Amino acid sequence: MLKVISMGTRWLSLILLVLSGCRGQNEGLLDDLSALKKEFIAEVLQGSIEECPFDLSYHFRTVFYSKQLVSLFGEFHSYTHLPHGWTKYEGRTFYKNNGRFEPLLLSHLIATKENWEFIRKYCETLLKSDPCTYFSGEEPLRTTLALEDLNTFTLDDQALIFVFQPYTVAGGTDGPPIVRIPWEELRGVISASHPLCAILNETIHSKCFIASWDENSLERSLKEYDRFQEQLKN
Questions:
Q1: Any long-range contacts for 167-176 (C-beta under 8 Å, 24+ apart)?
Q2: 49-86: per-residue pLDDT in tens?
Q3: Closest to 176 (Cα-Cα) out of 158, 153, 197, 160
Q4: Element (H, E) at 62
Q5: How far apart are alpha carbons 61 and 211 in whole angstroms?
Q6: In terms of residue numbers, what domain contains 64?
C-alpha cells in the first residue's frame, strides 16, 4: 500500500508558493525525494509476500508562518523490509530577502567555532538531563554530542529548535527528540548581521504570525494574533 503524501489543506498553497519561489535553491531537495521514491518502488518490486504491506509516507507541515519567515518540518517514513522501516526528519526554513524567499542555512547564522561549541554544549547538557536519551543513567550509551548531530532544525517565535534523527540521541520515542534554545540564549551567538535577526524581531513585534510546533504554541500564537486584531479595531 502506497500512501499519498498528506498535508493539511490549510497550508497547501503556502508550501507550493514557498517551494516554487525557491525552486532554484531546492532542486536538491526535490531530487532527493524523487530518488527515495524510485528506490522504494524498486524495493517493492523485489519484495516478498512475507514482507508486505509496503509503505511510504511523507508528512510536511508548517511550524512557523509569517509573510517574511516560514519554517517547515517534514517526516519521511519507509517500510520495505522486515523487521521494521526507517524514518528521517528534515527542517526547511525560508526568509524573504529582496522580495524573494531564500533558504536559511545554519552555517550562515552561526559563524564561529566558539558559537557552534555553545550550541553543541547547550544541547548536550539538556540531553543529559533527559532520562529518555542515550546520555542519561549511570552507564550512558553516549557522553558527547557531535556537531554532525546538529544538522536538522526548525524555528518558531520563541526558540531555535534542533531535531535529532531517530536513534542518534535516543531510542524509540513519541515524536522526534528535540532541544529548544530560546532566542534570549542566542544573543551574541547567532550573527547579528544576518537578515533573520531583523525579520524575526519585526515579525514577533507585529504579532502577525502563526506558530504551530505543538498545540500549546499554536493556541498561544492564535490568541496573540486575535488580541492584535482587536487592538487594530479599537
A1: 169/127, 169/133, 169/134, 169/135, 169/142, 169/145, 170/127, 170/130, 170/132, 170/133, 170/134, 171/132, 171/134, 173/132, 176/75, 176/89
A2: 878 888 889 888 999 999 999 999 999 888 887 777 88
A3: 153
A4: strand 55-65
A5: 11
A6: 1-104
Provide the whole-model pTM: 0.78
Task: Report in angstroms the alpha-carbon separations of 112 from 107, 121, 124.
Answer: 9, 14, 18
Using CA atoms, how far apart are residues 193 and 170, in angstroms rounded to an integer? 35
| Cell output for 65 | 508562518
Kindly state whether residue 186 falls inside one of the protein's structural domains: no
95 occurs within a structural domain: yes
Q: Is residue 92 part of a domain?
A: yes
**What is the per-residue pLDDT for 54?**
87
CATH number at residue 35: 3.30.565
CA-CA distance, 152 to 110, in Å (whole number)? 14
Q: Is residue 29 part of a domain?
A: yes
- For residue 35, what is its C-alpha cell? 530518488
CB count within 10 Å of CB 2 equals 12
> What is d(CA 97, CA 21) in angstroms, rounded to the nearest whole number?
12
For the cut 60, the answer to whether the pLDDT of residue 160 exceeds it is yes
Torsion of Cα atoms, 190 then 192 then 197 then 202, to 10°: 150
Look up residue 125 and give its amino acid.
T
What's the domain count of the chain? Answer: 1
Output the CA–CA distances (angstroms, integers) from residue 128 to 22, 98, 153, 173, 197, in the order listed.
Answer: 38, 42, 20, 16, 30
pLDDT band for position 17 (50/70/90)?
very low
